[in-house]
Design a protein that fits this description.
The protein has about 60 residues and is mainly α. The protein contains two helices and no strands. The chain has helices at about 5-30, 35-60. Helix 1 (about 5-30) runs antiparallel to helix 2. The longest helix is centred in the C-terminal third of the chain and has 30 residues, at about 35-60. The radius of gyration is 15 Å and the shape is elongated. The termini are close together. The relative contact order is 0.16.
Length: about 60
């Protein structure tokens, strides 16, 4: 993986982390149960995406 690609992956991890935090803050301030449920699902999507990106970095480091 090139340096540019590594930087892109690191940036994407930061983006996913930010989205998780924004979603968590929103969930804490929501009153509507259906909106909370929707945001919880979205948060889980971003968590899994971040984990995939972290795994990609781990594979790259171990090569």
């Amino acid at each position: 993986m090139t340096q540019k690609e590594l930087l892109y992956v690191e940036d994407a991890i930061g983006h996913e982390t930010s989205l998780e935090k924004i979603l968590e803050d929103s969930i804490l301030n929501m009153e509507d149960a259906s909106l909370k449920s929707f945001l919880e699902k979205e948060k889980e999507i971003h968590k899994k995406r971040k984990e995939s990106l972290l795994e990609l970095l781990e594979v790259e480091v171990n090569e």
